[in-house]
Amino acid sequence: MERWVGRVALVTGASSGIGAALCESLVRSGMKVVGIARGVEQIKSLSENLKGSKGSLLPLKCDLNKEEDIRNVFDTIKKELGGVDICINNAGLTNGKGILDSTVEEMHEQSNVNVIALCLCSQLTILSMRERGVDDGHVININSTIGHGVLPIGTKFYAGTKFAVRAITEGLRQEMREAKSHIRITSVSPGLVETQFAFRAYGEEKANKFYKSIECLQGHDVANAILHIISSPKHVEINELIIRPTEQSF
């Protein structure tokens, strides 16, 4: 991680779960981390707890449904920190509804957060790198095992957005190779991670059933896997990583 000390990482969906664990791990590794979410107060609290660490955490409020919010985040980063060297598109959204039960507005919201915002953050990150002559940066998209197969658990529209993330990540990798760029692109697909995600989507009873059925991953398990990915030598590109609890069967 030494080559990343003092450099800038952007983490979306940073208020809890995997995003918060990522912010903590990267800050403790010496990076200048920008954590964004609608629930910015939680990131501010984490930032206070991390004072005195090797790196730093800048909390910024951002609604990923709004293009203007995303562009404002990148403008702020450019002004205060120079630009983005690692972008981790971690934010994800589902409402627990089936395709037949979802409104157009609800489907737009999931698509905006899970797909469009991910693409825009990736675009603006790579633009930031190119403006500064950075050719060793990294874009990491947090996918899901649901992006590899439509499973009985999870809503099917959400699965569709995660299939899209898988295709977009590989497409972006190919575009980087066509451009003779050394910017690396990675998809990380966790299985069951014990976070607030299922509680928000499915309610307390169903979420507890998920999380108590097996020994789930924790946010720091995924964060540790990502530290391994970005610590790889520059000539090594880990394109796809699936990480499941040992007891998970699907």
UniProtKB/TrEMBL annotation:
This is Dehydrogenase/reductase SDR family member 11. GO terms for molecular function: oxidoreductase activity, acting on the CH-OH group of donors, NAD or NADP as acceptor. It comes from the Eukaryota. Transmembrane segments: none annotated. InterPro entries: NAD(P)-bd_dom_sf, SDR_fam. The keyword Nucleotide-binding does not apply. Gene3D superfamilies: NAD(P)-binding Rossmann-like Domain. Belongs to the short-chain dehydrogenases/reductases (SDR) family. Keywords: Oxidoreductase. The keyword Oxidoreductase applies.
